[in-house]
Amino acid sequence: VRACPLIHDLVDYNCDERLRIPITGDSIVYGVGDGGTEGEERGYVARLQAALPEAEVYNVGVRGITSSRLLRALKRNLAKDPPGETILKLDAADIVVIAVGVNDFFEHAEPSRTVRNLRRIVAFLRRYYAERGEIVPVIKVSYLTPTLRGYQRPFISAVNDLCRKLRSSALPMGPDYSTLDTSLLGEDGLHPTASGYDVLARTLVRHLRGPVRRQCLRERPDVDGDGVYDKFESERFGTSSSLFDSDNDGHSDGEEIFILRSDPLDASDP
Ligand SMILES: [Ca+2]
Ligand SMILES: [Ca+2]
Ligand SMILES: [Ca+2]
């Protein structure tokens, strides 16, 4: 029996039997420099989807966007009624990745301002899910990718250093894209080549299978080992988090809920 069944061995954090991973940020999330035709899914997000076919991976990348503009865009787009594309992509997320900041250099030269904006984006998203009564997903902020542009390089390094120093639950740092080899950057010295995107995708997959998986397992204990995380037992399914088989019919709560699709509180079903 799988606990709120694992998908690709990753925790279904909100226990809805889907693994949804929206990734929001700038042109590197969008996939600029990866070739292909306009509007086609590209970059490391498309590669992550290929690596995790049973997950639902969403590209919420906007070319040229900065951290402050991303915050404004999220606020605007997530308030839309009827729901627009952004809401549909961020809806019921298990893990959200935020990857933005390289373009901030063109708006200001204060690395601390970028870090403050990253924190604000995290706080805003957590509030957004909580206010809708949704499970607040695991949110991760990526370190910035390197650049060959001499004028922009000190800014990017300073943001990464500051993020490393200030990482906390308010600034939950995630995949480390800063180690990308600069020989994998394209002609503009900023956007990765196709091989660079391969590396970013592998970095993200490793991060999801390593630290994110461990964090999720810590935050989703299953004390009675029945395949349903404690958090969802009484709250969602009405079952007991200390009873392996709440209705004592010989089938565990997890088996009934996720496999037999029977009532875990009715001993005559199945
Ligand atoms: Ca899910
Ligand atoms: Ca349980
Ligand atoms: Ca049972």
Q: Could you state the order of secondary-structure elements as H and E? A: EHHEHHEHEHEHHH
Query: Which strands sit side by side, in order, in the main sheet?
Result: 2-1-3-4-5
Number of discrete helical segments = 9
Shape: elongated
Cofactors, ions, other ligands: calcium ion
- Main β-sheet description: 5 strands, parallel
Query: What percent of the residues sit in helical stretches (DSSP H or I)?
Result: 25-40%
Tell me the Rg in angstroms.
Answer: 20 Å
Class by alpha and beta content: alpha/beta
Question: What does the secondary structure layout of this molecule look like, with pairings?
Answer:
Blueprint: E1 20-25, H1 27-30, H2 43-51, E2 56-61, H3 67-77, H4 85-90, E3 95-99, H5 111-131, E4 138-143, H6 153-166, E5 173-176, H7 194-219, H8 230-237, H9 253-260
Parallel strand pairs: 1-2, 1-3, 3-4, 4-5
Structure, explained:
- The chain is elongated and about 70 Å long.
- It has a 5-stranded parallel β-sheet, with helices on both faces.
- It is built from 9 helices and 5 strands, in the order E-H-H-E-H-H-E-H-E-H-E-H-H-H.
- It is 40% helix and 10% strand.
- The longest helix is centred in the C-terminal third of the chain and has 26 residues.
- It has 270 residues and is an alpha/beta fold.
- Strand 3, helix 5 and strand 4 form a beta-alpha-beta unit.
- The structure holds calcium ion (3 copies).
